[in-house]
Amino acid sequence: MKLELICHTPDVETLIATAILTTTSGAQPSTLYKRLKNNPEEARTAVGRLELQHGSILEHNRFTWTLEATEGEVLRIILENRFFTFTPIGENKWLVSANLRTILEYSEKMKDGFGAALVDSVREFAPSLKAFRGRRE
Amino acid sequence: MRVELLGHTPVDPLKGVSKGGLTDNDLLPHAAYTFAIEGISRACSHQLVRHRMASYSQQSQRYTTGKRLSERAVTPNSIGDECETFKGLVDASGEAYGKLVESGVPKEDARFVLPNAAPTSLLMTMDGGSLNHFFGLRCCERAQWEIKDLADEMLLKVIAAAPGLFKETGPYCCQLGYCPEGRFTCSRINEVQERYRGLLEEN
């Protein structure tokens, strides 16, 4: 399988940190977003504290790739996690998209080449996440 | 109510990959839109979260304070700011909440006395396909006024951010060309279609 990242939501860590603080702070989410965008260290700290159990916080983004894979390989992925979105764009070629929660839950459970390729392609956009730091160590 | 589009997936790279082989509707599920939605009522957020193909991070009443409810409560126009029955209940509810918290009741329990008019804010992410469905239902004349106002605001934000991509959106009568509401139809399909066509052209 060959995976290539095409595009993604910008400012992924800022949005994760905004989601974290929105739930527990009295401040408005747009105010939090602007504050965190101007203060990346605060965003990194908030994201660094996040445990994977609070997965909904990781859903405010989307990554889209092209994937070369057989129909059988795609079926296996979809059966494992229904939150991937696939669109065929050619013979054994697909547009596939998912959010960080789906990526992490799939890769943690399956520990296969597809999961590893997903994580490698997005790690740089949320480097403060414990799940990614753990993989490097 | 205040709505801001904080971020969205760029769609042009997807168009490049599909080389024209996919329609805009094919691409919509691969693009996500994240909104900051502020100052809506709890009644409105209850309706919003019925749209399950979306992600929500909402201010928790376990952590945030319900104080100053009288100033912040959402009041429907049909009731109005001068309605003593409504105002009296909101004031009493806010007062009861304050007393419970001061007496040591945890916020997570004190909030049981707060009304549907209590304000809330949240972060919401929806993909383009789900957004079209949301607009189809909630921009409709039959939708409740607050969520319709919200849907109209969100629609303006996405058509400004992704011009052309949502060119056939709006209530279902605009998307489908006919009203799917059957005997509940507002019977003003031409007027509604014209209004949303105008909105899409302006933006």
| CATH architecture descriptor text of the largest domain in chain B | 2-Layer Sandwich
Largest sheet data of chain A: 4 strands, antiparallel
Portion in helices of chain B: 40-55%
Secondary structure category of chain A? alpha+beta
- Quickly count the domains of chain B: 2
Average pLDDT of chain B, rounded to a whole number, is 93
| CATH architectural group of chain A | 2-Layer Sandwich
Strand content of chain B: 15-25%
What does this structure look like?
The complex is a heterodimer of chains A (137) and B (203). With 137 residues, chain A is an alpha+beta fold. Chain A is built from seven helices and four strands. Chain A has one domain (2-136): Gyrase A, domain 2, CATH 3.30.1360.170. In chain A, 39% of the residues are buried. Chain B folds into two domains: 2-59 and 119-202, Gyrase A, domain 2 (2-Layer Sandwich), CATH 3.30.1360.170; 76-113. A four-stranded antiparallel beta sheet of chain B has the order 1-2-4-3. Chain B has ten helices and four strands; from the N terminus they run E-H-H-E-H-E-H-H-H-E-H-H-H-H. Chain B is α+β, with helices and mostly antiparallel strands and 203 residues long. The chains are: A alpha+beta (137), B alpha+beta (203). Chains A and B meet through strand 1, helix 1, helix 2 and strand 3 of A and strand 1, helix 1, strand 2, strand 3 and strand 4 of B.
